[in-house]
Amino acid sequence: MDKIVIENFSLTYSDGVESLFNINLNIPANQITALIGPSGGGKSTLLRAFNRLNDLVDVQRISGVIRIDGINIFRKDIDVIELRRKVGIVFSRPLPLPLSIYQNVSYGLEMMGEKRKSVLDDVVEKTLRLSDLWDDVKERLQDSAYSISGGQQQRLCLARTLALQPEIILLDEPTSALDPVSTAKIENTLEELKQDYTIVIAPHNTQQAGRIADQVAFFLQGKLIEFSSSDEIFTRPKDIRTQDYISGKFG
Three-state SS across the chain? Predict the structure, then answer.
């Protein structure tokens, strides 16, 4: 079943740069879909379109449709705050709040009005476990989030996203600033999370896409060149440009 359906979607920034051009793509539920391609190809722009973070930047024109669960997210009556709860995002560098480890996870729920400590405690433990961080921090939940390593901070940011009970998790180069051990932990966590979430990732490199993605979309200069299973993209690409990118001839 497709969770996200993109039809003839284009986006142009106010400086006239066409970031995305006529994208058609169906993203299945409960799988990891990777968006790959050279820098500037439009991958991050598409990620941000899914929860309308592009509303916050200088966009000149948007056309086409993006549907999540059959609903056009650009409808005028869409609750954008609710959309961003449903579609969470983790960025390339850890961005913990200047609060305790515990409060980093509980903050969003508290802002939504949840004050029951028992509920907050349960959510904090559950999401830290889902993010493979609980055993590392369970004795220091009141410590500053800045007191833990970069890899732990990134997993904390993932826990913070999960605390709001999203259905879709977007990740924009989530391991680009992390060491190999922390990267492996994030990748293992994503493999487990896809049972309950739809995951879309712009990975740090093509090797990461090959390790964890079920489906791969290759973007070049704002255009979708090819979309297929990870196995087909990496072993039997249909487009020579995909083959050249995968083999390292450019990028």
Answer: CEEEEEEEEEEEECCCCEEEEEEEEEEECCCEEEEECCCCCCHHHHHHHHCCHHHHCCEEEEEEEEEECCEECCCCCCCHHHHHHHEEEECCCCCCCCCEHHHHHHHHHHHCCCCCHHHHHHHHHHHHHHCCCHHHHCCCCCCEHHHCCHHHHHHHHHHHHHHCCCCEEEEECCCCCCCHHHHHHHHHHHHHHCCCCEEEEECCCHHHHHHHCCEEEEEECCEEEEEEEHHHHHHCCCCHHHHHHHCCCCC
| pLDDT tens digits for range 99-158 | 999 999 999 999 989 999 999 999 999 999 999 999 999 999 999 999 999 999 999 999
Cβ(156)–Cβ(145) under 8 Å?
A: yes
pTM of the model: 0.93
Q: Where exactly are the structural domains of the chain?
A: 2-246
CATH code of the domain occupying 2-246: 3.40.50.300
Q: pLDDT digit string (tens) for 36-67?
A: 999 888 999 999 999 999 888 888 889 999 99
Tell me the torsion sign for CA atoms 189, 195, 197, 201: positive
Cα(first)–Cα(last) distance of the chain, in Å? 32
- Give the tokens for residue 122: 């349960």
